[in-house]
Amino acid sequence: MLIPDNLFYTKDHEWAKIEGDNAKLGITDFAQSSLGDITFIDLPKTGANLKQSDLYATVESVKAASDVYAPLSGEVLKINDELVNHPELVNKSPYESGWFSIIKIADAAEKNKLMTPAQYKDYVEGLSK
Amino acid sequence: MFASTPLIDKHKNLGAKLAPFGGWLMPIQYSGIIEEHNWTRANAGLFDICHMGEFAIDADLSKSNLGDLLTVNLKSMPEGSCRYGFMLNEQGGIIDDLVVYRISDFRWMVVVNAATTNTDEAHMRKYLNSAAHFENISTSLGKLDLQGPESGNVLKRLVNEDPKLKYYTFGYFDLLGEKIIISRTGYTGELGYELYMPNKKIPQLWERILTDKLVKPIGLGARDTLRLEIGYSLYGQDIDKSTTPLEAGLEYFIDWEKEFIGKAALKKEKQEGLPKRMICFASGSRRSPRHNYHIVHKGEDIGNVTSGSFSPSLGIGIGMGYVSREVKVGELVDLVEGSVTINAKVVNKPFYKNGSIKCERVKNAYTG
């Protein structure tokens, strides 16, 4: 299970990569592996405002539709258009080409509510016990 | 506690994701549902179907009432043939859908769903008169399904002869020191076979078939997408005791010329009109309907989705479900759940029309 050490994580298996004032968002390797083949991703458009922990996107796999929650609050600056025709990128590369959105961070203090890579690793290991 | 397939260790070694199905812990996927689905449509897939139930019944039709328990016209079945049909309750509700094999004049095998094996057995024992001898052989007999356009060639290499089986017939073949039943049947819409082998030799048979380069193991996840693309019903999801074969659009498998439990109720329903009927629909996008989504027609909620999934072969969402009024092919429906609305069109089944199911040709291109 890949858990890059430069990201922050949620209990719902989303990640956030903080890049200055902005953050790139996506779902973790654990999430994509649990969902199986991803077939459709519904993302909020550029300009939408996300609120931390609120429902933000829907990911459909062959078997089911699953909710994705926003790791941080902020305005959507960019979405990954590649996912429209190639949702499988999330399975192949959940942390790189399978990213979901880039947002302008509304409140930098919110990252304190997220898990560090070490915490998330412990959390995931706890789940599979 | 779950029942265990004789292949549980093989599945674990292959890295399968396991999940409960019909009271059994079964492999849902190995490499991935889409990859396994596409492999089966293009080559041949091997499915562990040991969870399904098998009954051996000795019954002389002139003395036994076995025929009354099933919608299948047993008398018309030649030896070596299989038929799909139903066991109904008095109300016409489906106790199970099943396949009957005519082994000889007086001997039958009935293959039933895993989750319903015990209730089927209880129902049959309750109704069968003393002229029939009933035996549940599920715990000793296993089943592997070999499905896909290359399955005929694979089987030919396996049994060292051309199986020469026509659709919905079976024969006996020597394999691993046993004489086993292999039928030309399946649940994928592809040319395919079902192999019945004593459980103790199932692991050996599994290994042997997987040595063929054109065969890969396929989980129940892809089995579900493969069957849904053809519009086959899944018992417990699309059909159950609260639905009749008429409502499910399966009248084709009812023989009105014979007597069977539930016939009076079906006749009445046919006269009075169906309270609900199954429709099939395809979305215009990759977005897929799911079990229990509402079916909305002209602004009115008229039913629920029973099966819905992404179709790997077609690249769109497909599904089926019951609606309370007639909706014609080509009409538009919305599939709704919370804030999600999927636009879809009512279509005829099968969704996927290029299956090799009735292909009689056995290609000889592969010699490996």
Q: Cα-atom Rg of chain B, whole angstroms?
A: 21 Å
> What's the N-to-C terminus distance of chain B?
43 Å
Distance between the termini of chain A: 15 Å
Identify low-pLDDT runs of chain B: 361-368
Taking the sheet with the most strands of chain A, its summary is: 6 strands, antiparallel
Most extensive chain interface and residues per partner: A-B, 15 and 17 residues
* Widest β-sheet, arrangement of strands of chain B: 11-12-13-10-4-14
Describe it for me?
The complex is a heterodimer of chains A (129) and B (368). Chain A is of the alpha+beta class. The model of chain A has no long low-confidence stretch (mean pLDDT 96). Chain A is globular, with a radius of gyration of 13 Å. The longest helix of chain A has 11 residues, at 117-127. The relative contact order of chain A is 0.25. Chain A has helices at 29-35, 82-85, 89-92, 117-127, and strands spanning 8-9, 14-19, 22-27, 38-42, 49-50, 55-61, 65-69, 74-79, 101-105. A 6-stranded antiparallel sheet of chain A has the order 1-2-3-9-8-5. Chain A has a 3-stranded antiparallel sheet with strand order 4-6-7. Chain A contains 4 helices and 9 strands. In chain A, 20% of the residues lie in helices and 34% in strands. With 368 residues, chain B is of the alpha+beta class. A 6-stranded mixed sheet of chain B has the order 11-12-13-10-4-14. In chain B, strands 15-18-17-16-19-20 form a 6-stranded antiparallel barrel. The longest helix of chain B is centred in the first third of the chain and has 11 residues, at 117-127. Mean pLDDT of chain B is 95; it is low at 361-368. The A-B interface holds A 36-37, 39-40, 42, 58, 60-65, 87-88, 91 and B 17, 29, 32-35, 221, 225, 285-288, 290, 309-310, 312, 340.
